[in-house]
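Sanity check. The docking grid for nicotinamide-adenine-dinucleotide depends on where the pocket ends up, so I'm generating a full predicted complex first rather than guessing from homology. Inputs follow.
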Amino acid sequence: MRRVAVLGATGSIGGSALDVIARHPADLRASVLSAGRQVDALVELCRQHRPDHAVIAAAEGYRALRDGLRGAGLDTQAHAGSEALGALAAGEACDTVVAAIVGAAGLDSTLAAARAGKRLLLANKESLVLAGELMTAAARDGGAEVVPIDSEHNAIFQCVPTAQAREGLRRIVLTASGGPFRGRSRDTLAAATPSEAVRHPKWSMGPKISVDSATLMNKGLEVIEAHHLFNLPGDRIDVLVHPQSLVHSLVEFVDGSTLAQLGLPDMRTALAVGFGWPRRMSSGVAGLDLLAHGRLDFEAPDLETFPCLRLAYAALAAGGTAPATLNAANEIAVAAFLDGRIGFLAIPSLVGDALAANPAGPADSLDALREADLAARRWTEHALPRHAA
Ligand code: NAD
Ligand code: MG
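Predicted complex below; grid placement will be based on this.
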């Protein structure tokens, strides 16, 4: 029986994880659930899944959570704040952690789970982008079993699950749907609205990653994520646009052989792999009927229209704190875009300017990374008015 902490339970990945967990009552149990600020949604999930602990990140949510759990007649214990979250992720209440908080806000709890040697289903890609070296070292030292919960990285994991299986690997190819604006020219994107940007053609996801998919920053973050997970330099990580989102990624070996993982675009497959590995378990996702789909298309990414992907490669090449700066500037820019404060094209401009204005330093400590993250957030906040929509 795995006792699972679902961090970010009220989100898109959190919901998919709970769906898979509920299908396997004899093998999986949600023992800890967390959310950012949605107390009512968290209480409702507790009603359904009866965890031992519930954590609300926003401290002011504590009282409402405690009273809500009591009112529902549950003995789930209420907690609040990031320290409680880290302690529960690392503690006895769980052996498996689904890290599905969005953004750098997930760093501490993800790191705590890695250090504590948990089975770590890692969806929170921003924490790897921000602190990949430290995260990898923490997982190694803590003996954590990391299974990537990003469809591309999960695909690569399934193709080459161990370091031994990666011998003779020449390159990996991350597939990208191209997002809602694939095929559009740069000038037509100036007026793109948040509701257009979050309308992803193939995946149903949270707002931040949906905007990242529209700018191709998501693929850029994934290149950096792949670098850390599979220990490959950026020039051996390629990106291929594949609008059907059925081939989730490919690995190529020195002998000319290519392996790929295919499936319907539904994150429950990746989550079931994470819970069961090396065993397979049902996920609720149907098999792939290639005859019904008919064709698989591939094209090169358009880096002129979507410069974020290029910026991410550049940040990876620059190394040090550059990826932390890239991620922080992007988080601020995306939040401002979703708030209607800046236009769509301001996102790549702000991230590019933030990288230029905040030169990379060494990323040898968590403090150095946090400082770079904070500096880039401040810098980008200050630059927002110049890009006002
Ligand atoms: P979402 O916005 O749907 O959910 C985010 C969750 O994080 C919510 O439960 C929210 O309450 C919680 N949260 C937000 N801010 C928080 C804070 N400051 N402290 C604590 N909790 C906080 O996002 P999502 O789409 O589920 O994505 C989650 C992560 O998974 C992201 O890193 C994303 O890149 C990654 N991911 C998602 C998908 C997908 O299909 N949705 C695919 C691949 C990777
Ligand atoms: Mg992905």
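Relevant for the grid: The longest strand covers residues 28-35.
Also worth noting: The radius of gyration is 20 Å.
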